[in-house]
Amino acid sequence: MAEGVASSLCEAQLADEGSSAAAGSGTVFTGGGEAERRCCCHCSCSGGVPRKEGNTFPNELVVKVRVSDSPERHFVLVDLPTSDLSWLRLVAASCAALGIPVKMVKEVLKLPNTLLVRDKDVKRLLDYQELELILHNA
């Protein structure tokens, strides 16, 4: 099913509580005793993009980024707007946060072993996933 169709179905299910699709959805109880209503089992209605708990801003994706083979092994958090998720936007925001030129980035690796090469790959990312920027040898 196409991404746009999936998000439309989720929003439609929430909007129409009397429909048979919404009747199949349930209420999920979180640890704090609060109830969270979900329209389907595969998302928490954040535009059809599943999000990991912890990010309180539904319109942004938060990823952890560091430079590969650097003595600094700590990650930096990078916020990306979900309205414009692209590979180039990811690289530009990551480079700005790490203080390196965009031209030095050769590849983006999602740890432990997946190269991100297309905009579609970036749109699949979940909050707080760990990424490494692989740089050209200077």
UniProtKB/TrEMBL annotation:
InterPro entries: ANKRD40. This is Ankyrin repeat domain-containing protein 40.
